[in-house]
Amino acid sequence: MKWEKGELLYEGKAKRVFATQEPDYLIAEFKDSLTAFNGAMKAQLNHKGEWNNQISAHLMGVLEGCGIGTHFVELISPREQVVKRLEMIPVEFICRNAVAGSLAKRTGISEGTPLPTPVIEFNYKNDEMNDPLYVEDLIVALGIASREEIARIRTQGLKVNDCLGKFMDERGIQLVDFKLEFGRFHDELLVGDEVTPDTCRFWDKKDQSKLDKDRFRRKLGNVAEAYQQILDRVST
Ligand code: ADP
Ligand code: UDP
Q: What is the pLDDT of residues 65-119, one digit of tens each?
């Protein structure tokens, strides 16, 4: 299929989304911008869009291999991929295998402490409100997603944790936590958006060094090297 890039439908912090000649398909273009704290901290990182485009393509392929439906269709250029057009559910599914980030702040437990079983959280995706943590009953009560959809997101999200956790572990990387977004595609519920070092915490198993967006958030340096390292390891 020769994909035609149509109208710009949405520009977010990390991607631009375009229509194609097929109503069920979109082109996602990954940008070089890096943002944190809901856009309060911003920078450009040359080639980051290309690295994330390829990393997400690889990892969505890994998920498909585990029987998990995703929006990914094909890469069409270094920073563009075709995806299925989903009706996005404005909920961030977060899954944690160890304490880090906002959970360390909320609990006072030190970063890196393993969690005996994965911990799932839901954030309501709303920039103005800073993506607040919502309990499942509230998501259902407000009609953001149905009880059945939340149950399915949980099951699929935990499957992603097993599949991606194992894949990264084999490549010397600990999957500390990650965020997923899901959307409706006809009668399916698919993983959308991206799976990249912007949305996952990846720690090197040999020395616990961070290979993800925390290098930017916490001004640790070597951000480009970390993203390239992830691309290298997921490509082998
Ligand atoms: P943000 O909106 O958080 O700044 P991005 O820059 O990554 O994030 O923008 C991408 C937007 O496209 C997000 O709002 C995301 O929910 C949406 N999106 C991701 N995948 C799909 C898809 N397959 N179909 C429709 N919308 C999608
Ligand atoms: N995350 C994300 N987008 C968000 C919030 C969180 O991709 O808007 C990811 C984040 O990269 C981490 C996980 O979800 O892998 C858990 O994030 P946390 O709640 O600890 O928040 P943070 O420390 O990122 O503010």
A: 999 999 999 999 999 999 999 999 999 999 999 999 999 999 999 999 999 999 9
Instruction: Kindly report the CATH number that applies to the domain delimited by 8-84.
Output: 3.30.200.20
* Four-way CATH pick for 87-221: 3.30.470.20, 3.40.640.10, 3.40.1160.10, 3.40.50.300: 3.30.470.20
| Angle between helices 147-169 and 48-65 in degrees, nearest 10 | 100
Q: Whose Cα sits closest to atom 2 in ligand 1?
A: 12
- Portions of the chain given CATH number 3.30.200.20: 8-84
pLDDT at 38: 87
Output the CA 102–ligand 1 centroid distance in Å. Answer: 22
How does DSSP assign 201-232, residue by residue? EEEETTT--B-STHHHHTT-S-HHHHHHHHHH
Q: What is the pTM of this model?
A: 0.98
**Ligand 2 centroid to residue 6 C-alpha, Å:** 31
